[in-house]
Amino acid sequence: MGNVKSLGEFIVERQDDFKYAKGELSRLLSAIGLAARVVNREVNKAGLMEDILGDAGADNVQGEAQKKLDVYANDEFIRALKDRGEVCGLASEENEGVIEFKSGYSVDGQYVVAIDPLDGSSNIDVNVSIGTIFSIYRRTSKSGPATFEDFMQKGVEQVAAGYVIYGSSTMMVYTTGNGVNGFTLDPSIGAFFLSHPDMKIPENGKIYSINEGNYVHFPEGVKQYIKYCQVEDPSTSRPYTSRYIGSLVADFHRNLIKGGVYIYPTTTSSPNGKLRLLYEANPMAFLIEQAGGVATNGYDRILDIQPTSLHQRTPLFVGSKNMVKKAMDFMAEHSPKGK
């Protein structure tokens, strides 16, 4: 691999970027990378294994049908993080309450992890890119297993966040508050290597990502922004291109590299939005800000929102700075906050 750095080498090399710098975060990120490799193995052979495809036969706490791979990925990340000593508990999109680590070395671990084990899992059976999203905080409680309050921290308190995308190649992208770096999995040796150093999103893009099938249910500000995106204007490189995959990780990753805006607004059926603040919006907001972009709920910065529940939902406008700000202008004019 020449002089290409492995994920492990990079984490150790950059450990001093983290103000606590005692090695725990390095081991924690390595554990997430290990679990991601195991999940990637199952994702890549899903079509050959009848026992891993399809519905698990139950709904998660969100009321959504769980896929077998949802359950597998959730179990794998819990297993990878438990009893390692760094994490005292975990909150998952797939579980109603906090998963407390009550035994082993992790009882007094200094970190908690919020995770969406398999984002976009409804796309599993049709071979569309899916992913894992994770968010890491220092605990606020003193000792013992994790508490509910440990997770009720604003996104600005995150010490690390990232995602893994299982696509044409498998990548892990993360930040510890000192820029964004991407690592590609070399399947021949089972290791991640630095492939996208210091990732930056363009200030302007030509892609807007939204489920236009829900157009009639969108706020007027979003409707007007979509119309703006479709108007021909060479001076602003419009019309923009509409691209929507349906997996947040996949849409976010493309826009991070090429420039664009992803919008999942409120709708008449989801008046609080649909994406989860802890498992999806906060980690993606941390990443995009570190890459030079912006993340809001249409009015306010995502990272400043105070969570009040584990599965709290929020609208999300995330991506290139100028595109998000233009969408916010339309929201302020046509869908004023509080009206």
Count up the helices: 8
Per CATH, which architecture of the largest domain?
2-Layer Sandwich
State the fourth-level CATH superfamily of the largest domain: Fructose-1,6-Bisphosphatase, subunit A, domain 1
Tell me about the largest β-sheet: 8 strands, mixed
Domain count: 2
List segments where confidence is low: pLDDT < 50 over at least 5 consecutive residues.
none
Task: Please write the CATH class name of the largest domain.
Answer: Alpha Beta
Q: How many beta strands in the DSSP annotation?
A: 17
What number is the mean pLDDT? 90
Portion of residues in beta strands equals 15-25%
Helix content: 25-40%
Biggest β-sheet: strands ordered side by side in the sheet: 4-3-5-6-7-8-9-10
Task: State Rg.
Answer: 19 Å
Order of helices and strands: HHEEHEEEEHEEEEEHEHEEHEEEH
Mind explaining what this structure looks like?
- It is a single chain.
- This protein is an alpha+beta fold.
- The protein has 2 domains: 7-196, Fructose-1,6-Bisphosphatase, subunit A, domain 1 (Fructose-1,6-Bisphosphatase, Chain A, domain 1); 207-334, D-Maltodextrin-Binding Protein, domain 2 (3-Layer(aba) Sandwich), CATH 3.40.190.
- Helices cover 28% and strands 24% of the residues.
- The strands form 4 sheets. It has an 8-stranded mixed β-sheet, sandwiched between helices.
- Helix 1 (7-13) runs antiparallel to helix 2, helix 2 runs antiparallel to helix 3 and helix 5 (220-230) packs across helix 8 (321-334).
- The chain is globular and about 60 Å long.
